[in-house]
Fold each of these.
Amino acid sequence: MNVLFAASEAVPFCKTGGLADVAGDLPKAILAQLPDKRKSRILRFLPKHSLIDPRKFALEKIPGVLKIPVGEKIEEGGVYVCKEGPLWTFFVENEKYFDRPALYGQAGKDFEDNDERFAFFSRAALELCKLIDFVPDIVHCHDWQTGLIPAYLKTVYATDAFFHRTASIFTIHNIAYQGNFHKQSLVLTGLGWSEFTQEKLEFFDQVSFLKAGLTYSDYVTTVSPGYAREIQTTERYGAGMEGILKLREKNLRGILNGIDENTWNPAKDSRIISKFSPRMKDFEWRKKSCKRELQKLCGLGVDNEAPLLSMVARVDPQKGFRMTLEILPKIFDEHPKVQAVILGSGAPDLEKELTALSERFKGRFCYEKGFNDPLAHKIYAGSDIFLMPSEFEPCGLGQMIAMKYGTIPVVTPTGGLLDTVTPKTQESSGGNGFICADISSAALHQTLWKALKTYEDRQEWRTLMKNAMTADFSWKRSAQEYLKLYENASQGKTRAD
Ligand code: ADP
């Protein structure tokens, strides 16, 4: 089986959020599950963002130039490849589109030509298959940036013999990001006005790249069973796409994300000062070393016993920053020992409030603005309680990563958070975190208090930490589910012929 993975970001090359983790790790996990590796290939296609260091990844230029129609123009694309074991990643180059200081926008504003940039990339992905003579059985697309690929396969390339056996799968990583543009963008895409209907890619008189992915693909998946259910219900969760998703119910699957247990492993993590694992008798003592290092690094009072809360997230209303900003001052006043560290950047108004709070509670609260992977590792390892009070959460990786480092999550009852966190109950020694009763600052406040109370009981907390650290968040089971879906989609295509 030949699989093409098309995405706009992937670790280790570039990352703004969980999509990069998934596009980085899932192809490898699927490769590991393939029954006959010699008969299967997975290739990954990404834009050649100028933020990707060509030397670090030993990118090789390959001969040939892509000529891609964009509206009335023909835009050219160079091609590079990074050969990393059996997984080769191809990069589509076009300086005008991808030589930018960020991936999608800056200072909370999207780049104005994102429609053109990703229409170009989507069509280039299919042309690149031809250039390197790679006939995909499956094109697996991720988020709105690649939503036009399924549309191209069913229209521009519908009668192209090269793609006659190709089925498409579209994965929603976050339905709130839709790639909706003025309807004139349709001209740039090269798709006809006959596609501009409610059943296809028209969305409130705009062109929606996400909706294109939802309507033209053979299967739609999303990143947790909980989120798959939620997005079909109300506008709050479906962001206006709930109707179209309900129509696609039979071909919609929720497959839970995993995390890469090599990258996120406190026993091997070179970024933390003291490595630890649940098998070590003194793992709590070792984690405390990480805590002291983090406290020093963040200008917090060095204190083994101070409960240290943390967040590592895009600073976006989705992540529950409003509720967090409301309850943190209360918690600091009520509980004289509590400390907190938050790492992230995003919405300027929220960043400002976080900065003001860190000035008010100097020595107890540190807000670190920016994207900082080494610091993220230190926070996961050095803190005690990880806050993830999301308004909605497709899957969420932060809570799973935190658990691997023995940092206990406090989460809201939504999407993938419900699928990954097992609540601690009074009656049993099970559970690996705390789930709020509802999505409100009152519930968050109450649940955080419960967590802080439990933290005082060293034995109970140790059990929670062990449960969290030993939970299975590997990609293995999900990779098997994707593989089954690839087979179904591919057989469906053969049957249709
Ligand atoms: P989302 O995809 O909605 O941003 P997830 O929890 O699914 O949220 O994934 C977020 C990923 O990005 C995690 O790997 C997290 O550690 C990382 N991350 C988020 N913000 C930062 C940051 N400011 N610095 C470093 N890593 C970050």
Amino acid sequence: MQRIIGNIIGIETSCDETGVAIYRPDDGIVADLVYTQADHAAYGGVVPELASRDHVRKLPAMIRETLDLAGLQPTDLAGVAYTAGPGLAGALLVGASTAVALAAGIGIPAIAVHHMEGHLLSPLLEDDPPDFPFVALLVSGGHTMLIEVAAVGRYRLLGETLDDAAGEAFDKTARLLNLGYPGGPEVARLAMSGDPERFDFPRPMVNRPGLDFSFSGLKTHTRELVKRCQPDDYADIAAGFEQAVVDTLVIKCRRALEHTRLERLVIAGGVSANTSLRQALDKTLPDQVYYPRPSLCTDNGAMIAHAGWHRRSEGVTNGLIAVKPRWPLESLPAIELTKPT
Ligand code: KG4
Ligand code: ZN
């Protein structure tokens, strides 16, 4: 077994953010750069080929800059962690090939990281990290999952979305309301000046038992409502939509805690940056909810470096450039959490 202690560089290129960061167990995140691609806004969604090309353009300089910010030379690195999946195949390959080449050049391990495990473990980067076990709500642009987390790598899927992901629902609603991409922050901003009670929105699946989600009915409801309304009404629509998503997520989180008899809830992924969601969970489950700072909710290299450090023994893929656009989180092997000393 190969032990690594020291600086791990993390490379994230699964979608439209290029993220590079350095994590080391003694100090946490020592440098963290994220570049959000702007070209996709004109298309209302991520264009895979444009994403890959932009990663190619940005990544090498960002790696140099991250090392400079941390005051490190490449030879000070102990491992190169990279997102191997899930995500867009071409975008993932840019990060994977760069990471494997960098690691080979320095003579250190390249470590394949599961993007959602990066999100899931990101609250551990904060000052008051949750103890295991806990329930994790992972809400991003591509996933909505409730997971029982016994330890690092010991994951049981409790529920997931049957159709759209929560972030995707925000992005589609933003498009209906003529807002920009990514839609989550834009809908949330507009919702602040709206009345969430004015229009009735469904709370999908809350009356059915179980912990799965479905957001496509909410999307259809919003589309029909927009047809009947004027731009003056959009703030109220945004507020009603956001409230419906938040209520649904809160109900399912409470249910997951009851079902597992666990006390702690972790939320992570892009939608966990949503202020209304955080406030509603804090109110319903006081002192039980853990989330990362907003910059660690959306895609970033720090969560990949950190997860790579936990995976330093079994994630090593030296010389092999392979990505997994689809990769079930529950298929990851369990590992014992090594506390930073
Ligand atoms: O985790 P993430 O950065 O990328 C994926 O792994 O998908 O999540 C991106 C998603 C997008 O759908 C975006 O609209 C949503 O997270 N998002 C938000 C907020 N910030 C980002 N949704 C609601 N409220 C926010 N403040
Ligand atoms: Zn993500």
